[in-house]
């Protein structure tokens, strides 16, 4: 607990290095509190095949975020902060409950703002029998210091590489130096997990899968991201090219983002994927561009029975 408090008393767990003393209730850019805050514990069947498999991925959606994406589909929890604060012990129990439900893995969705707390909970859960892979589902805007707290605790990294042009990062996600920050973070993730390991059923037991969402009007930016991946991580890198962009949140008010992606734009990026020699890609159907895939955040699975009853009695 001392190490966790030390990390949160002058918070530098993400690249913003805001220095907020979260142990005394101070809030930084992400607005995340001291205790971990969770909005939904669920089964997810629509991740990449090596993650969701046939039994689903055991997702844990964390509240708040260190980005401010104008098109965020999960803005209710990432920017509006919907969720429930829970203890470290309860979070560890949630991980074990997801394992008991038979899912292929534990999937930590947007947990960067709670890295010290998650690391503590993972250690507790592993001591109590957690043995399925842990997936860290990230926006890519991570600090090396924060990621190193997770070394040995995370089996599969699932990061975004959102932008090549840093001006896009500033305009659309309110974050400086996104390209350099995400690139360094992804290389650290690769260092930690080493080579990709899949089991006989094609499920990832250890490794990294990169995600890139193609944005309207930005297919050339996407090509530059792919070029970096090919050069720095190699032709066998697992890469998920997403076409699911849908104008949500404040994107509807921004002309460049107020439309869906065209088939031409997405196909240009897919063609570039093969042209530069990348081999392991997951492509999306155009029908994925809908808000119907956004989860319903209703605190399902977050509280134990006793805590739920107490809340309802208030």
Give the structure's gist in a few sentences.
Strands 1, 2, 3, 4, 5, 6, 7, 8, 9 and 10 form a 10-stranded mixed sheet that branches. With 314 residues, the protein is α/β, with parallel strands linked by helices. It has a single domain, classed as TIM Barrel, CATH 3.20.20.70.
Number of helices: 11
Task: Quickly count the domains.
Answer: 1
Major sheet size, sense and barrel closure: 10 strands, mixed
Task: Spell out the CATH superfamily.
Answer: Aldolase class I
- On the 0-100 scale, what is the average pLDDT? 94
The span between the termini is 30 Å
Ordered list of secondary-structure elements with their pairings:
Blueprint: H1 2-9, E1 37-44, H2 49-52, E2 57-62, H3 75-78, E3 84-85, H4 88-100, E4 106-109, H5 115-127, E5 134-138, H6 144-148, E6 156-159, H7 166-173, H8 178-193, E7 197-198, E8 204-213, H9 219-233, E9 238-242, H10 263-275, E10 280-283, H11 305-313
Parallel strand pairs: 2-4, 4-5, 5-6, 6-8, 8-9, 9-10
Antiparallel strand pairs: 1-2, 1-3, 7-8
Write a structural description:
The chain is α/β, with parallel strands linked by helices and 314 residues long. The protein has one domain (2-313): TIM Barrel. It is built from 11 helices and 10 strands. Strands 1, 2, 3, 4, 5, 6, 7, 8, 9 and 10 form a 10-stranded mixed sheet that branches. Helix 9 packs parallel to helix 10. The model has no long low-confidence stretch (mean pLDDT 94).
């Amino acid at each position: 607990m001392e190490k966790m408090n030390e990390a949160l008393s002058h918070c530098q767990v993400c690249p913003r290095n805001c220095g907020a003393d979260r142990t005394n209730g101070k809030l930084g850019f992400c607005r995340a509190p001291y205790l971990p805050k969770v909005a939904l514990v669920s089964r997810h069947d629509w991740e990449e095949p090596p993650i969701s498999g046939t039994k689903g991925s055991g997702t844990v959606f964390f509240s708040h975020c260190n980005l401010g994406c104008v098109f965020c589909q999960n803005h209710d929890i990432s920017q509006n902060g919907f969720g429930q604060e829970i203890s470290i012990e309860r979070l560890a129990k949630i991980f074990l409950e997801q394992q008991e439900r038979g899912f292929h893995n534990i999937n930590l969705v947007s947990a960067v703002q709670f890295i010290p707390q998650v690391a503590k909970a993972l250690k507790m859960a592993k001591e109590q029998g957690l043995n399925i892979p842990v997936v860290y589902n990230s926006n890519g805007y991570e600090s090396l210091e924060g990621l190193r707290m997770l070394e040995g605790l995370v089996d599969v990294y699932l990061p975004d590489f959102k932008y090549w042009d840093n001006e896009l990062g500033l305009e659309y996600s309110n974050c400086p130096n996104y390209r350099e920050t995400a690139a360094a973070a992804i290389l650290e993730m690769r260092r930690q997990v080493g080579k990709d390991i899949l089991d006989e059923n094609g499920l990832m037991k250890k490794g990294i899968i990169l995600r890139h969402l193609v944005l309207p009007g930005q297919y050339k930016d996407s090509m530059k991201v792919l070029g970096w991946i090919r050069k720095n991580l190699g032709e066998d890198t697992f890469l998920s090219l997403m076409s699911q962009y849908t104008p949500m949140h404040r994107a509807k008010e921004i002309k460049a983002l107020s439309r869906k992606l065209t088939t031409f734009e997405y196909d240009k990026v897919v063609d570039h994927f093969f042209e530069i020699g990348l081999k392991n890609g997951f492509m999306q159907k155009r029908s994925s561009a809908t808000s119907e895939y956004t989860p319903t955040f209703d605190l399902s699975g977050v509280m134990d029975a006793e805590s739920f009853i107490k809340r309802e009695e208030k």
